[in-house]
Write a sequence for this structure.
């Protein structure tokens, strides 16, 4: 709508300024509401995967491993969210050549993610098995003739 043409269903006045009681703010941030609603399941899935890769279940994992896994999940979600914001806004730099705030968030969360990943390591550890599980697995892997 061109400047100066306020309609009956607009949130702006004839000068283009927001009017009192406008609903525009309800549209802005609608994606962040969806992000925060879905992040809980994603975070839990990431934590479970990290703990599993370290050879533990959530129940028997050391507290420090779980804490590091939660830090990884949080930093990963923040990093990816900031990256999505950078893509939406046209890249890491403004038209005046300044770094966007989302770029600073991306950098900081990438740094934290790397630090947390170093805490847990990047190697896969075999989950401990008892003798019955080992024999059952061995029996399942034997070729049948």
């Amino acid at each position: 709508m061109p400047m100066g043409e306020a309609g009956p269903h607009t949130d702006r006045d004839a000068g283009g300024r927001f009017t009192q009681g406008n609903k525009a703010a309800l549209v802005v941030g609608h994606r962040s509401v969806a992000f925060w609603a879905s992040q809980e399941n994603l975070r839990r899935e990431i934590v479970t995967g990290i703990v599993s890769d370290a050879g533990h279940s959530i129940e028997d994992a050391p507290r420090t491993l779980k804490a590091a896994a939660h830090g990884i999940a949080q930093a990963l979600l923040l990093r990816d969210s900031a990256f999505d914001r950078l893509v939406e806004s046209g890249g890491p730099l403004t038209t005046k050549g300044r770094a966007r705030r989302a770029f600073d968030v991306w950098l900081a969360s990438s740094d934290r993610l790397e630090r947390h990943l170093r805490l847990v390591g990047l190697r896969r550890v075999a989950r401990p098995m008892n003798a019955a599980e080992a024999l059952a697995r061995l029996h399942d892997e034997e070729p049948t003739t």
Observations:
- The CA atoms of residues 51 and 61 lie 7 Å apart.
- The helical segments are 24-27, 30-53, 63-89, 101-120, 131-141.
